[in-house]
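Sample intake sheet
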Amino acid sequence: MVTDANSGFKNLKETFIVDVQKAERKALNVPLISPITVATVKIEKVDNVAIKIELVDGCVGWGEAPILPPITAEDLPLAMSKVAEACEFLKRSPPMTLGLVLGEVGSILQGHAFASVRAGVEMALIDAASYSIGKPLWRLFGGVSNTITTDMTIPIVSSVEAAQLASQFREKGFKTLKLKVGKNLKGDIEVLQAIHAAHPDCAFILDANEGYTSTEAIQVLETLHEMKLTPVLFEQPVHRDDWEGLGRVTKIAKEKYGVSVAADESCRGLADVKKIVEENLADVINIKLAKLGVLGALEIIELARASGLHLMIGGMVESRIAMGFAGHLVAGLGCFKFIDLDAPHHLSEDSVVKGCEVYGPVYKFPNARGSGCFLDWDNIMW
């Protein structure tokens, strides 16, 4: 039996009346320390969409939609246009319950094509409501904890650079490293060896971002096993539509090497999770608000827990607005085995005021109302 730690939010949806006074959006530039390379794309810069919603009682909520085509379906012009459409709807709508308003937003921003912008608007509405009732988001979502511990990602780099990064992250207290792989089988193994030498005590996650065939993925596990290096998780080893390959890797990884496999890109909605459950295609579901929306994520979390799957939380490249919201959710629910919310560590500056405190891998969430963070709205560059 899965306990319903999320009853506070469910109750809020039914009882809280949303009356929007202002709803705005701006492009939010998220500068990176250095480009991030994964198997499918090289991220040079990030232009997200920030969303601000103010209720008639003066309470403000904040949201963020990460825009990373082709990882997200939306590009910036489309995202700005669709968020503006949702904002106009919210400003002219009569007062209604939070649940109804979220349903209307879902009708405007339907499906995977608008999942990221839907998530951003949902975040802002939920944040405003939580602020209005004087409750921190982590308490709204169950109150299990007010802290989380994240892993740290090493993008696709040379073995020398990987070793340097692993050493730096070791000094900062990171005990789990997530390695982006999937472009070069031989190079991936060399990088893993370098990371292990620099941080021998770390647990590590492999994230192929769809980059391997099932045969290559199994070969990686076999080679690592011979080297006495066993990942704690193998994330999205094959193409999102290669269901047979995903199932094959999952079966061999579990039975032969004791390694769990996570579905990320293969999980874009509830139907995907049902297929994964019914056909035993993965052990772990990677939840990303930007690919599912907040409500969609909660629905999938409930199904995954009831089905005995483990949960992982991940993100795109976001500021502490979106990362903080996801962290509040994870801390409040307390049911995630793998936490990958390291994006703020990859940014060269932080435009978010207050909110969660970050101590290396540990995020601590305040007892402040809502998310506890905000943006200096008038000084955000368009």
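Comment: Residues 33 and 346 are 6 Å apart (CA to CA). The two ends are 48 Å apart (CA to CA).
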